[in-house]
């Protein structure tokens, strides 16, 4: 407990420098604790993955990782804070497609997706359009029913998030009219379908999986390039002839301008952690799954998805 | 109901402020309306409701005019403490958590009536140290560092 | 039933009891510290629980959850700092009791009420999970709106004797809740171009501001820098324990608050703060001494604490029976369950009956452990009142500033808290009650979202509120309460 004593002595001598007296340079990076900014609330999916990643990476980096939740503005507050912080690698953004790509599409929030460099993607989720199991048996049935009753059927989603975009994209492609009932989160939409207050909910497969398994809900269509092995009998929108694909992702990023050696170091450490079976098992215990992409591949998603969803949201 | 004139003044300010708010709210929202209800509907309704209630309060206060009972008490501690706290928050990113909080705790102890220099000193040095250790070492939540670090 | 005894044996293993106790202590500490909340505590301890056996991990999470829900009351009563949003309702009367020398009694009422509410909630989870879940599923947007309106009438109840100012405070509370992103379309409103405001006002900044910071302002005004003799507050002898009369007063309140809390906990998306405030309002409505509320009513503390802890067990009802996580904690626990190969849902009770039985036993045991730890800690906590204000309040202000900063790393939230401190001080000085402000703030979004969602679903027709029985009953009840308050108020004015 050498450091603790140092703080106490420092404190008593009224030296405010005790914990912060470090100098940062690429050679000795990291020389002080690193902050992970999570732009979403504590306890949520992104937060949990960020904390697990932070814990595992801090062991490799030899410095504590402090996780901070800076919530608000569809993730804009936290993302902007990460962008504004000194570009020295001591502030890392736990980023998702929502705050990184979709929020800047909506309006000027002071950053663009390309203002960041990806360290790596840690997860990518499958989106599924689900309904109560006593409703439609297939997407075809839904489409036929909805064509006969335009606007009668509802789907619940948070406005402007990826599940909302794929659901409305699907409706547009299938030339049907569904009524959007805005939700305050993903879980309320699922509850609404189970309670019969909503007809459909586009959500991540993980958050409806238990209802699919219990038979309470049925998946009609997934918005993947290929079927998800976790729900092998649910067709993709592409199979049905609708080109609607969208996968929300989560990963780490730092602001552009961070020195190259530091970026490389973070990428190496993250790659090592993400491929560690113990870490993968831990993430799976939290209900998520690891879908790792390396830094360059992850960075490439930023502008690709920005262009893709910009077109979709207009 | 102690100082009717003061109360009437407050009610008048409330009335004016809520009317201004109701007037500017439409310019402070970007969302549209669905079925006649949009982003601005509730805030405007509330501002109008507050305005009506404030008007009631104003009428009430003017009707029950009574002479002010006691002369105005000293009120300097409130602005002083407000400025002190603003200065504290503003100083956090420059002086860092420890030094700013030493000044805050010391200043407040004096304001709240502690006279012994030694007591103020011990309190001012120890409290931020304990908080710093607890949050940074135990919770791993980083507190503001001084600008020169 | 034959599953209960092996389950007791499993839960009673030393390791499970130890991690549960650790969880309770961590929870109480986190709950008592402003800015650090239960979801954060659970999130931070998650990596630890992953290294434990599944039952031990869940036992620890249950401990943190229950300890955290109770812990907020300790700081609320002793130093007017509600460590959690739900403890705001406890602070309304708890701190007044402390100022009157009844800290020890208030802490006891809070502990016993928390225990009672928690226990009733656990028992409801065990015995009535399926019917309660079925009722909770019926709560859709229209019902949420109607329930919210019914709860808002409590603003009237809490404003009696000071109706106009109370209603202003309530309306202002709702108004504050509308700042930020409009939940219905994701667009900003009333943010005045500030990105920091796009997240809206954090409840924690509001509640700590109007309680702790406002109290510090009041203290500054009272002392005005004059040196104060260093005599601490005394724990008056009369304030030591709960008398038989106190029990007669509080027990019915606890028992009435618990079922309401159980119901609120079972409905996804409401939560313990709403339960605490609603029960506080209900208790005032039925009290023989409503005038004491806000000025040191034991009933107020009992209702708030029984109400917020009664949420703890029943939040697991939708989780276990329907696989619906009602809040952040249950969402995290859902992950823990699923890793264990458990699929929450009606089938859980048959396919994994042994694990469910162990979980139920863990819930009960943690309630009892919480009572024991809380009771042991009580003589220690109460020492805080020996610290003179001139020493205590510099610490309180520093703690609040640090805690709120720690919760968001945002300087902006500190200014917001300071602003709400001035608001709270001003409201107190000009005779505006604080409870309606807080109730308005937490209920505003529920009412607005419920109304607008309902209208989208019904395509603009108000019929939805009449054709749905639960919604209709709530709205009629709301009209009844409003009329009753109006009549009582007009009578009061005449006499």
Number of helices of chain B: 4
Structural domain count of chain B: 2
The name of the CATH topology of the largest domain in chain A is D-Maltodextrin-Binding Protein, domain 2
What is the approximate shape of chain A? Answer: elongated
Distance between the termini of chain A: 57 Å
Number of domains of chain A: 2
Shape of chain B: flat
Strand content of chain A: 15-25%
> Counting H and I runs of at least 4 residues, what is the number of helices of chain A?
11
Tally of strands of chain A? 11
Instruction: Give the % helix of chain A.
Output: 40-55%
Strand order of the largest sheet of chain A: 2-1-3-10-4-11
Instruction: Report the radius of gyration of chain B as a whole number of Å.
Output: 24 Å
**Biggest interface between chains:** B-C, 70 and 64 residues
Mean pLDDT of chain B: 88
How would a crystallographer describe the biggest sheet of chain A?
6 strands, mixed
Distance between the termini of chain B: 54 Å
**What is the number of beta strands of chain B?**
2
Low-confidence regions of chain A = 1-24
């Amino acid at each position: 407990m050498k450091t603790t004593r140092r703080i106490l002595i420092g404190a008593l001598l009224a030296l405010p420098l005790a914990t912060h007296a470090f100098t940062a340079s690429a050679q000795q990076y990291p020389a002080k604790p690193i902050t992970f900014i999570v732009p979403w609330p504590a306890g949520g999916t992104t937060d949990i993955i960020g904390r697990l990643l932070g814990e595992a990476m801090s062991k490799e980096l030899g410095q504590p990782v402090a996780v901070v939740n800076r919530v608000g503005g569809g993730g804009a507050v936290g993302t902007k804070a990460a962008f504004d912080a000194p570009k020295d690698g001591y502030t890392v953004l736990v980023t998702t497609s929502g705050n990184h790509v979709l929020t800047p599409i909506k309006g000027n929030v002071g950053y663009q997706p390309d203002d960041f460099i990806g360290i790596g993607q840690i997860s990518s989720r499958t989106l599924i359009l689900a309904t109560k199991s006593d409703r439609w048996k297939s997407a075809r049935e839904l489409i036929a029913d909805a064509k006969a009753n335009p606007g009668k059927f509802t789907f619940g989603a948070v406005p402007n998030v990826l599940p909302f975009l794929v659901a409305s994209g699907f409706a547009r492609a299938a030339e049907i009219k569904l009524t959007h009932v805005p939700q305050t989160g993903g879980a309320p939409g699922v509850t609404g379908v189970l309670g019969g207050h909503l007809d459909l909910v586009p959500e991540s497969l993980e958050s409806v999986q238990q209802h699919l398994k219990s038979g309470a809900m049925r998946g009609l269509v997934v918005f993947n390039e290929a079927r998800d092995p976790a729900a092998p009998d649910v067709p993709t929108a592409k199979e049905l002839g609708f080109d609607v694909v969208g996968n929300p992702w989560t990963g780490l990023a730092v602001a552009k301008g961070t020195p190259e050696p530091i970026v490389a170091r973070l990428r190496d450490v993250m790659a090592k952690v993400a491929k560690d079976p113990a870490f993968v098992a831990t993430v799976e215990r939290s209900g998520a799954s690891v879908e790792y992409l390396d830094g360059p591949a992850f960075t490439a998603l930023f502008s690709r998805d920005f262009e893709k969803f910009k077109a979709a949201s207009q | 109901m102690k100082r009717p004139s003061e109360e009437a003044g407050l009610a008048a300010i409330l009335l004016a402020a809520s009317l201004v708010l109701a007037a500017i709210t439409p310019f402070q929202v970007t969302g549209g309306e669905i079925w006649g209800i949009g982003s601005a509907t509730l805030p405007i309704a509330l501002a109008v409701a507050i305005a009506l209630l404030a008007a009631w309060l104003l009428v009430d206060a003017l009707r029950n005019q009574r002479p002010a009972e006691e002369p105005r008490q000293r009120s300097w501690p409130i602005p002083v403490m407000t400025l002190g706290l603003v200065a504290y928050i503003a100083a956090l990113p420059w002086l860092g958590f420890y030094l700013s909080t030493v000044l805050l705790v010391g200043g407040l102890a004096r304001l709240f009536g502690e006279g012994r220099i030694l007591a103020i000193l011990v309190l001012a040095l120890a409290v931020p140290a304990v908080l710093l250790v607890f949050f940074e070492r135990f919770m791993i939540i980083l507190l503001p560092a001084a600008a020169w670090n | 039933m034959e599953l209960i005894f092996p389950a007791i044996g499993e839960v009673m293993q030393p390791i499970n009891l130890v991690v549960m106790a650790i969880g309770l202590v961590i929870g109480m500490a986190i709950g008592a510290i402003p800015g650090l909340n239960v979801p954060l505590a659970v999130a931070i301890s998650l990596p630890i629980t992953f290294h434990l056996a599944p039952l031990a991990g869940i036992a620890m999470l249950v401990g943190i959850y229950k300890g955290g829900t109770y812990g907020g009351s300790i700081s609320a009563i002793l130093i007017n700092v509600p460590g959690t949003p739900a403890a705001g309702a406890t602070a309304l009367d708890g701190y007044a009791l402390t100022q009157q020398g009844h800290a020890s009694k208030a802490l006891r009422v809070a502990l016993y009420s928390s225990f009672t509410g928690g226990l009733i909630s656990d028992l409801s989870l065990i015995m009535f999970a399926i019917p309660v879940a079925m009722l909770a599923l019926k709560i859709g947007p229209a019902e949420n709106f109607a329930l919210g309106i019914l709860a808002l009438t409590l603003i009237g109840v809490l404003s009696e004797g000071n109706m106009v100012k109370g209603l202003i405070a309530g309306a202002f509370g709702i108004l504050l809740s509308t700042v930020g992103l409009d939940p219905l379309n994701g667009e900003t409103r009333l943010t005045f171009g500030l990105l920091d405001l796009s997240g809206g006002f954090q409840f924690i900044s509001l509640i700590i501001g109007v309680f702790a910071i406002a109290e510090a302002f009041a203290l500054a005004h009272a002392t005005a820098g004059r040196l104060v003799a260093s005599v601490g507050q005394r724990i008056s002898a009369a304030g030591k324990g709960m008398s038989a009369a106190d029990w007669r007063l509080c027990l019915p309140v606890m028992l009435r608050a618990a079922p309401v809390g159980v119901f609120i906990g079972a409905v996804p998306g409401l939560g313990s703060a709403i339960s605490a405030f609603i029960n506080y309002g209900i208790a005032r409505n039925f009290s023989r001494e409503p005038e004491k509320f806000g000025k040191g009513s034991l009933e107020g503390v009992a209702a708030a604490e029984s109400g917020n802890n009664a949420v703890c067990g029943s939040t697991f009802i939708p989780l276990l029976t329907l696989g619906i996580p009602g809040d952040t904690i249950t969402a995290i626990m859902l992950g823990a369950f699923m890793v264990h190969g458990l699929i929450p849902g009606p089938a859980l009770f048959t396919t994994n009956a042994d694990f469910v039985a162990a979980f139920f036993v863990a819930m009960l045991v943690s309630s009892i452990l919480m009572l024991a730890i809380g009771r042991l800690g009580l003589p220690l906590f109460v020492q805080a009142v020996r610290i003179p204000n001139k020493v205590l309040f510099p610490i309180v202000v520093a703690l609040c500033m640090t805690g709120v900063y720690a919760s968001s790393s945002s300087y902006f939230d500190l200014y917001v808290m300071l602003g709400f401190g001035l608001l709270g001080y001003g409201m107190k000085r000009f005779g505006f009650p604080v409870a309606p402000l807080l109730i308005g703030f937490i209920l505003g979004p529920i009412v607005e979202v419920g109304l607008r969602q309902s209208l989208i679903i019904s395509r603009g027709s108000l019929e939805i509120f009449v054709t749905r029985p639960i919604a209709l009953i709530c709205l009629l009840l709301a009209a009844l309460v409003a009329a009753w308050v109006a009549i009582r108020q007009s009578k009061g004015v005449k006499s």
